[in-house]
Design brief:
This protein has 13 helices and 2 strands; from the N terminus they run H-H-H-H-H-H-H-E-E-H-H-H-H-H-H. It is mainly alpha-helical. The chain has 2 domains: about 10-105, DNA polymerase, domain 1 (Orthogonal Bundle); about 125-285, Orthogonal Bundle (hpI Integrase, Chain A). A two-stranded antiparallel sheet has the order 1-2. The chain starts with 10 loop residues before the first helix and ends in a 20-residue tail after the last helix.
């Protein structure tokens, strides 16, 4: 049975439409975090529909929703995420022959998001953290062994925390395939230092949980669970407090890895591949070019611009041959 067209948003119908869209995203292999982020924007729009039940579902309706996002003082990046989510829902509905006006998704403006600045850890902070995590803790200190393995794995692979937390013991290797942001596959390549830290951690574990990184509760009646993003943040808080440095995020570790690679003259194309980015331009949102590299670039320009051009060769005029002469 073909569902009738409608002029005013029916909240029950739109909520059912959103649920179908989330199922489609799961079938497309979108990460749970991405679906949750999309649901945040779509839920906000659904609340707006519920508060304006008499408004027809038109361009003006969507523009009014976008205007109130601005009036609420939401950051451009947040508004971009929310409008992208609703745009995706309406575009999917149109191509799926759902009772939503065609091309309505085009009424959602693309929000211009200011380019983010790289925020790598300072070189002194980097070295303090490396020195802090390098010594192997005793086998009885499972949390310390796990945090050490987590640090070296993240900093040496530039993995997102969501990618690292997908990993299981079974089949784990130096090269392992994960699903990255956006749903595409990516290979994490771990060097020896990370693999040795993980081997130390696994050798000390006595649980049978399949996850590579897990919680280690102090009480025996609390179950072991797969490690979560907040558990990783707690590890950084402990390290920062111990070393007397500002708290840092896992994302700043990605910035740090990208900056280290560029300072070591690794090509931008390779850095983009390590980060899992298709476009080269995004690398500069993560990587900070070092002062030495900038100084070398300035000296190179100075050298090129101040070097005089070589003198042109002066050609002798050609002598005209006399008639009958040789």
């Amino acid at each position: 049975m073909i569902e009738p067209q409608f002029d005013a948003p029916n909240i029950d119908h739109l909520e059912a439409l959103a649920d179908d869209y989330y199922r489609t995203l799961r079938r497309r292999n979108y990460r749970p975090k991405s679906i949750t982020d999309y649901a945040y924007g779509i839920s906000d729009w659904l609340r707006f529909c519920e508060e304006h039940p008499g408004d027809p579902l038109t361009r003006q309706h969507l523009e009014a929703w976008q205007d109130q996002l601005v009036d609420r003082g939401l950051a451009p990046r947040t508004r971009s995420l929310m409008t992208t989510a609703v745009r995706g829902l309406l575009k999917w509905a149109a191509v799926s022959d759902r009772p939503v006006p065609a091309n309505l998704w085009m009424a959602l403006d693309v929000v211009k998001v200011p380019r983010g600045r790289p925020r790598p850890l300072e070189p002194v902070q980097q070295q303090l953290l490396v020195d802090y995590f390098t010594p192997r803790p005793p086998a009885t200190r499972l949390v310390a062994l796990r945090d050490r393995a987590t640090f070296f794995y993240l900093v040496s692979t530039s993995a997102r925390v969501s990618e690292m937390l997908q990993l299981d013991r079974d089949g784990f290797d130096a090269d392992v395939r994960v699903i990255q942001k956006g749903g595409s596959a990516k290979v994490l390549r771990a060097p020896q230092i990370a693999m040795e830290a993980i081997a130390d951690y696994l050798a000390a574990r006595r649980d049978v949980h399949p996850a590579l990184f897990v919680t280690h509760p102090l009480r025996g009646d609390v179950p072991v669970n797969r490690l979560g993003p907040e558990d990783v943040r707690q590890a950084w808080r402990r390290a920062a407090k111990k070393l007397g440095i500002p708290y840092f995020t896992t994302h700043r570790i990605r910035h740090t890895t990208a900056s280290i690679l560029l300072r070591e003259h690794v090509s931008v194309e390779t850095v983009a591949e390590v980060l899992g980015h298709r476009g080269l331009g995004t690398v500069m949102n993560y990587a900070e070019v070092g002062e030495l590299a900038l100084e070398n670039a300035r000296e190179k320009l100075q050298e090129v611009l101040s070097t005089p051009a070589p003198p042109k060769l002066r050609l002798l005029p050609r002598l005209k041959r006399r008639p009958g002469g040789r």
